[in-house]
Amino acid sequence: MIENRFDWQQFLGRWQQEWIPDEDDAEELAEGGVTPDDLALAAPPAAEAEIAAAEERLGTRLPPSYRQFLKASNGWRLDQGSIYRLGAAHEIGWFGDPFGMTAIYQEGLTERSTEQDVLLAGMWRRALQLETDSDMSYALLDPGDTDEDGEWAVYVYRGWSGELPDRYPSFRAYMQRMYQDFHSARANSPGFVNDTTRALDAGVERARQEALSGRWQTARELLTEAERYGRPRARGMRRQLEALAHGSGHHGYHGFGELVADPRYTGELVPVMAAAHLRERRPGAFPDRFVLGTETDDGVTAAAEAILAQVREGSYRYAPDGTFGQAVAEARESARWGDTDAAWRLIRAALPSWSPPGPDLLAPLGLLADPVLGPVVTRERGLELLATPRAGRPGPAPDPVPDLDPPGLSWLADTPRWNAPHDSYRCLWVEGVEPEALPGLVGEDGGAGLTAPPGRRDGWFHHGPHQRDDLAPWEDRAVMSVGRTDSGWAFGCDAAPRTSAAGTFFVSPAAAASRGGRAVVLWARRTRDGGLAVFHLSVAERGEERYAYTLRGTEVQRSGPVPETLDPERVLHGAGEADRERCLLAAMQDELGLSLPRLALAEGILPQLTTRSWNRAPREGEAYAYATIRVVR
Asked: What does pTM read for this prediction?
């Protein structure tokens, strides 16, 4: 039985011994109206005969943990929360649902209601009421909600809250939570030191060592337990582990407790909080106040506002000191042009050299807020980081997470495509040049060159066409994400072309882009059911187009000597409809050595370029029609 596995006398005795007055109790004692004995939590134990008499009166045997509690203390005073006193055995009685809660809860039941919903709806009429003093709140034992040990669930209902009752699986679980709340309410009191607090604080220190040694699951368990008791440092340290375990972009506000008030950690923790704060804002909503969640001095508050502005503008850069900082800078240079796998390898190799600015920082959290490196730290990589010993701690490194970018181009045919809601894409590759050279080759006249990435919030989700009021209706200027492949090609990729595919007035930019070497242009569009509607490939060298083809359905329009390895009729021989796009892309990657970085494109971390029009102007006698649709809300 459960009562043989839990010592109620020891538990309640420790609780009573650790009790110190809260503010209200201290005021009453100071006024002389009560004595410490009057404020005692415990009561004398109930005799077996008293418990048996209560059970006979109620017509039921009480659940095991509650019976054992009464044998240790016949009632209890709770000095926090909305339940003030639990009655003695002779004071408890059936609740009887005096407020008609059963009907209210049963009206809300549907065919989708869970078993727990049904139990809650019936609880009010059959529950046993335990409290004798409260703030419009009720502690109810439910004989209809039991477990294999014969325990009854406890429901605590705060009548003024408008919320569902809190459920505890047993009376023992309820009292253990109340004991934890008792500790939490006094955790910051200078005189509140006892064997329990000393043991928990030792656990927090052990958790710190375990976390830095890569044993983060053990650390999380220790910190979770300490946080339930309100121990200082525990919450902030556990939240660090949770933030990395979820990876960059997690939609959860990461508060770090009192650690945020320490200026040593401002540069690591506040950027993560700022990024989460901005992610949770709805577009167009009035800016919410950036709350740090703890009292801070003017210096930390000012630094936090400056960091928030940098994160909002996309100008924040994570820049730690030392060897790890150098690796971070190199990784950012790789990631900013698309090689996020190389960036992660650099960070991973340097992790053992990372050193915290203070004892309570467990990992380089600032990485998560960096607009370029943050998306590199996916959930899998965040877990790898946590499992890697750092700050000079010994221990085995975890198995490395495999590279996340698939090779080549075939992944473009995946459905759904990179989280993009569009059915068309076009790309340009130029061999032997750096990405910074693309504006001079294909950029719009008078353009700004490469511009900042669209930002993580937007990523692939471009809404509406790239149409501007200063352009002629026939113009089609691509807005491309720009980067570099590991085989030496600069690339640009437009995931949301304004027009559906290469049409009558299309002029491939390959020739203009190839003044110094080879250039390749790809433009593909799918049908609504995912089939391939149009596929265009053109290859130019030193200013002249060498060959090109446009595939529409089963018809192919060619110009120049298309190599056999790229010829669509040969490549698609025997291929099913679902494999056509993938086969053509595979031929391109094999013949030309082309690739694109999926993660960098999907996360929107690459700089952008607006190109010259991919359409020529209509010539005399050529008809051109267009329509503008405006949605008025």
From this structure: 0.87
